[in-house]
Amino acid sequence: MTGTLVLAGTPIGDIADAPPRLAEELARADVVAAEDTRRLRRLTQALGVTPKGRVVSYFEGNESARTPELVDELLGGARVLLVTDAGMPSVSDPGYRLVAAAVERDIRVTAVPGPSAVLTALALSGLPVDRFCFEGFLPRKAGERLSRLREVAGERRTLVYFEAPHRLDDTLAAMAEVFGADRRAAVCRELTKTYEEVRRGPLAELARWAAEGVRGEITVVVEGAPEAGPEELDAEELVRRVRVREEAGERRKEAIAAVAVEAGVPKRVVFDAVVAAKRAGE
């Protein structure tokens, strides 16, 4: 019989948030694959548990090479526990490759639910939570970051991002540029930790605050795009949106179609606005 892969959520801050089953699985597993074995040692000491199984590292640098080894263990009947530094494995953390490989071979995969920075930030943000998108980390390069943001400029669901503290001000400024300075957002810092802070406000205001320097683990929640009707977007704004998409690499035909969907107007209306703007500039 094949074994079982267990994905275990770990505390994102307060160790008291660890689910009881986490200690049980740590003590029971034949193999414990950890993103950082030193952090795992601190976690097991805090929980008062000693893993009986073999402990191996499983992080971005060795994920591709180690996945086949862990699959062999699973095929041999082992119970493999996967833990990352904080939160749920595979959510912006190592794990997806192993889960996909296990599923492909009909190996059972289960989970120990645990704390989630995404859901915690959503709940604390004060923004709509009935529909949301998790976008993970944005690209580090400014141009790529702007391009990625433009892809979701018309997204009406609430958006959730992870970000490094030293890039937060640039990211918020880019969001203000693409989404609009007045778009509501919340910056959630050090969730469940001693210095937890949730700063809410318009993107431009949050960008100015972040420029002073921010520390800690960061999750950013951004309000979705407002519904727009034909009367809310004039020709100049339609043309601007098409140009933004063209600068991001889209062909004009595709950009016009996308803007028409965002604005809730026929493609012909956007096309005519673009043609008129071109003639006015000649």
UniProtKB/TrEMBL annotation:
Enzyme class, UniProt record, top EC level: transferase
Cellular compartment(s): Cytoplasm
E.C. code: 2.1.1.198
GO CC, any one term: cytoplasm
Sorted UniProt keywords: Cytoplasm, Methyltransferase, rRNA processing, S-adenosyl-L-methionine, Transferase
Pfam families named among the record's database cross-references: TP_methylase
CDD domains reported for this sequence: RsmI (cd11648)
PANTHER family according to UniProt: RIBOSOMAL RNA SMALL SUBUNIT METHYLTRANSFERASE I
Record function comment: Catalyzes the 2'-O-methylation of the ribose of cytidine 1402 (C1402) in 16S rRNA.
Family: Belongs to the methyltransferase superfamily. RsmI family.
Protein name in the entry: Ribosomal RNA small subunit methyltransferase I
